[in-house]
Write a structure and sequence with these properties.
Layout lengths: L1 H29 L36 H16 L3 E9 L2 E8 H4 L3 H16 L5 E4 L9 H8 L3 H6 L3 E8 L7 E7 L6 H15 L5 E4 L1
Parallel strand pairs: 2-3, 5-6
Antiparallel strand pairs: 1-2, 4-5
Length: 218
């Protein structure tokens, strides 16, 4: 039983560590100063800190705010996202506000907000000064309810039960707010492992695709 316990926990821990490592590499590559072909990355973190109210700099003259022009600017940055398993698509243009959907690995990456603001928004506002803000549009996922949460938890319960543990939904709050929160209660040997909790939280975030979703532990 001890051997089985160690094996199961190691597998879960390795899965979470692999995901963290991949995300870390993804972020570091996105914010690298130069690509292999010598082109300066639009995600260069060595540039001064950027805020949406910063003045924009135009090099080739301003572009008009149209769907085609936004797509043209995004096309310049797609290679950096695609190389890390992600992509970006225009969701909506509402006056001076552009809504973008980060896809693939970029959509669930913990640094998606940084990618949106430091990379995509800055470059778009440099080329199209009519843009006042670029916001992330999340794809519509299933309803945030206890039944759907248990769909995700049922995928990890067999591993926890082998280790003599369990996991249950304690509460759901802020479903229609800026930061909806799922509170879980986990018991057993795995309850103290941060890697297991991280893996469960990321599974929930990928399942619901809700911006700002928080997972707490009772």
């Amino acid at each position: 039983m001890k051997c089985a316990l160690l094996l199961i926990l190691t597998l879960i821990k390795a899965s979470a560590f692999s995901l963290i490592q991949r995300k870390s590499l993804s972020v570091s590559k996105l914010f690298s100063v130069e690509a292999e072909d010598g082109i300066i990355s639009p995600f260069d973190s060595s540039s001064p800190a950027y805020t949406p109210t910063d003045p924009v700099e135009l090099d080739d003259g301003p572009l008009e705010l149209t769907w085609d022009n936004v797509e043209l600017v995004l096309e310049e940055m797609r290679p950096y996202l695609i190389s890390d398993g992600g992509n970006v698509a225009i969701s909506e243009i509402d006056g001076p506000v552009v809504r973008l959907e980060l896809q693939g690995a970029c959509g669930t990456c913990p640094s998606s907000t940084q990618t949106m603001k430091m990379g995509l928004e800055r470059k778009l506002r440099e080329k199209i000064p009519e843009i006042q803000e670029v916001v992330q549009s999340m794809p519509e996922g299933p309803e945030l309810c206890e039944e759907e949460i248990n769909v995700v938890l049922d995928g990890v319960r067999p591993f926890l039960q082998v280790a003599g543990g369990s996991i249950d939904v304690e509460s759901i709050s802020g479903e229609n707010g800026l930061q909806p929160t799922i509170t879980l209660k986990m018991e057993g040997a795995s309850a103290s492992l941060k890697s297991v909790k991280l893996e469960i939280a990321q599974r929930l975030q990928r399942h619901f695709m809700v911006a700002g979703l928080r997972v707490d532990w009772a």
